[in-house]
Specification:
Distance between the termini: 29 Å
Strand order of the largest sheet: 5-4-3-2-1-12
Shape: globular
Helix content: 40-55%
Strand content: 15-25%
């Protein structure tokens, strides 16, 4: 197999250049099998191994760019195919056009890693390739997490939620797991090339991760009884005017059976009214919740009142009432779902660009956390802080870890009905689990149609509801205090490691000769 790969990725021109492109596309297309729901992480390693070999043996920046692009295009083509459901089934986009738009998006996102690995080839070529390839993998994932609002999806580290490497997640996060996964492969190849077993010492990071799985970086400080209500309102009917009252009644009837819970969580936009329109109902529910010493939290659109600078503008929000309080406005919005980039030019072109509630405002950073009270007796009450995240936000490792620093628990609300029974909701759930593991916090997730779940501080699902069913999940969530190393240090260890590697590699370039010039691009 190695000899066949060598022939396909040889720098010698071939009469069949499409073969190497096809191999890379297929290798990338296999990558999502390593993620939820299958978690076949060995397949992910095999997929990345093909990419590593191809990039390692690139001779020009142009070659490195296109080899990376084909691999990434395959990865995103299959890994984000679930967007089709929202575009076609719910967004009214014709099937062929939806497929074309997804392909264009996958091709566009693929240019990000292609750009970074072209830079690696230009400045470093094969100098310290076994270290620079993992570093540039980290740099391209980090870049993709914030550039143009960010798309922190399909990270290599997310495949290792349940592998031995998961023990490193509270220390270096999912970005670091990506580095360790790629480094393991480049180390194996370097050892084989140099016939030097000493390189294999790097693989001890795997059993070390297994031992780290038992480390408690945070400690229990209390507990809350919780309930997450799954209304199971069909997405095609959710925003119809005639569904407003039945939806409110369904959520209330499910909730009143669980007033004994300290915290009751409704999903994202559970009620399809603005908060000011829902306020009369909410006041009634809040008084009942307070009498029962329960905190009711719901996702709901918030509209700025008349007489304010942003009158009439609205946020995707979370509001807490009853025995707790707080309001949170979503910071990281979904492009085209919650805001439309360049909307003055593309609104009206296709129905997908005119979805309901696709003009939200971004919330400000460093908002106050949600307060949830726990009643023991008149003389003994506790107050816990809960970090809230709305839908897509749970995918952002740095946002979650920053907000979780002072929090006792995490909550996230979503409406994954947009994506049906596709890969999207499963990948989304797994990202929430990774955030729990990175911060060692319990997480309660409420969704409209599923997946509604309670996750412990090790990233394991304690309990979850069946999808497409109207039901309420109940359980006990531990409150956790303390910060994991990842919460304290963030990405600085990875940036320092990357800087040292690139410095050493550049010194070797200067001493041993320059890589291929940029003109070869």
């Amino acid at each position: 197999m190695m000899s066949q790969l060598r022939s396909y990725f040889s720098s010698v021109p071939t009469s069949r250049p499409w073969v190497s492109a096809l191999i890379l596309w297929l290798a990338g297309a296999l990558f999502p099998l390593a993620l939820a729901p299958l978690f076949w992480w060995p397949v992910g390693l095999l997929s990345i191994a093909v990419f590593v070999y191809a990039v390692w043996h690139s001779e020009t920046t142009r070659q490195a760019f296109w080899r990376t692009w084909w691999f990434s295009f395959g990865k995103f083509s299959t890994g984000i195919s679930w967007i089709y459901v929202s575009m076609h089934d719910h967004g009214g986009t014709p099937a062929l056009l939806a497929v074309l738009l997804i392909g264009l998006f996958a091709g566009f996102i693929a240019t990000f890693p292609a750009f970074w690995f072209a830079l690696r080839q230009k400045y470093f070529a094969r100098h310290l390739a076994w270290l620079t390839i993992p570093v540039f993998w980290f740099l391209h994932e980090w870049f993709r997490s914030w550039f143009m609002t960010g798309f922190p999806w399909l990270f290599a580290g997310d495949a290792h939620l349940f592998s031995w490497l998961s023990g490193w997640a509270p220390i270096i996060g999912s970005y670091g797991l990506s580095v360790l996964a790629v480094l393991s492969l480049t180390t194996l190849y370097q050892s084989w090339q140099k016939r030097q077993p000493l390189y294999l010492l790097v693989l001890l990071l795997w059993p070390a991760g297994w031992l780290l799985q038992d480390v408690e970086w945070t400690e229990k400080s209390g507990e809350l009884t919780v309930a997450a209500v799954q209304g199971n309102v069909d997405q095609d009917k959710k925003w119809l005017r005639e569904m407003v009252s039945p939806t409110i009644n369904d959520y209330y009837n499910q909730t009143r059976e669980h007033w004994n819970a300290d915290l009751i969580l409704w999903p994202e936009t559970a009620v399809t009214l603005f908060l000011d329109q829902f306020q009369p109902y909410f006041d009634v529910f809040a008084r009942e919740a307070e009498q029962q010493h329960s905190t009711l939290i719901t996702g709901i659109p918030y509209r700025h009142p008349q007489g304010t600078p942003q009158a009439g503008e609205f946020h995707n929000s979370i509001v807490a009432r009853g025995y707790g309080e707080g309001i949170y406005h979503k910071q990281q919005l979904v492009p085209f779902g919650e805001f439309v980039p360049l909307q003055e030019f593309i609104r009206g072109l296709i129905p997908f660009f005119d979805l309901e509630m696709s003009s939200f405002l971004h919330g400000e950073a460093d908002q106050t956390l949600i307060k949830v009270g726990k009643y023991h007796s008149e003389e003994h009450e506790q107050l816990f802080l809960v970090a809230p995240y709305i839908c897509y936000e749970i995918a952002y490792p740095q946002l979650v870890s920053h907000m979780a620093k002072e929090a006792d628990m995490l909550i996230t609300v979503s409406n994954d009905a947009w994506f049906g029974d596709s890969l999207g909701p499963k990948q989304h759930m797994a990202l929430a689990q990774m955030r729990s593991l990175e911060t060692q916090r319990y997480l309660l997730r409420a969704t409209n149609t599923g997946i509604t779940a309670l996750v412990n501080h090790k990233g394991e699902i304690v309990d979850k509801l069946p999808v497409k069913q109207q039901a309420t999940l109940t359980g006990v969530a531990e409150m956790r205090q303390g910060q994991t190393p990842y919460m304290q240090l963030g990405l600085w260890p990875l940036f320092i490691f990357s800087g040292l590697v690139l410095l050493m590699a550049r010194v070797l370039v200067v001493r041993q000769g320059q890589p291929e010039p940029a003109a070869n691009f």
